[in-house]
Amino acid sequence: xxxxxxxGEQPHPPKTPPAAAMRKGYWIVHAxxxxxxxxxxxxxxxxxxxxxxxxxxLMRGGAQEVVEGKVRARTxxxxxxxxxxxxxxxxxxxxxxxxALRKGKSEFDLVIIxxxxxxxx
Length: 121
Fold this sequence. Notes:
Elements: E1 25-33, H1 36-45, H2 47-52, E2 56-60, E3 74-80, H3 83-91, H4 93-100, E4 106-114
Antiparallel strand pairs: 1-3, 1-4, 2-3
Helix pairs in contact: 1-4
């Protein structure tokens, strides 16, 4: 279960909402930001493609405690209406243009995963 903890700015939703799928897609991002001011340019630019593909932030930075293993300083979780939309967003020309803006400003690990169906208890 993902507990929502981000209440800041969200991408603008698409004009035509994407069709929902049974299983949502998620981006799990771990980043170390070396140039915070330069990184803000990327953060502003990625809002358009994220909105176009129906993404919303579940977590964006915030407090974290690593209890096992290693992780970068910043964690971000985005939810998409479907796994294919999460992949399509990453592969889109608009997102790739935004991603180019973070080069040299952060070390960035991104995993795109498919959610599971909720189980009745």
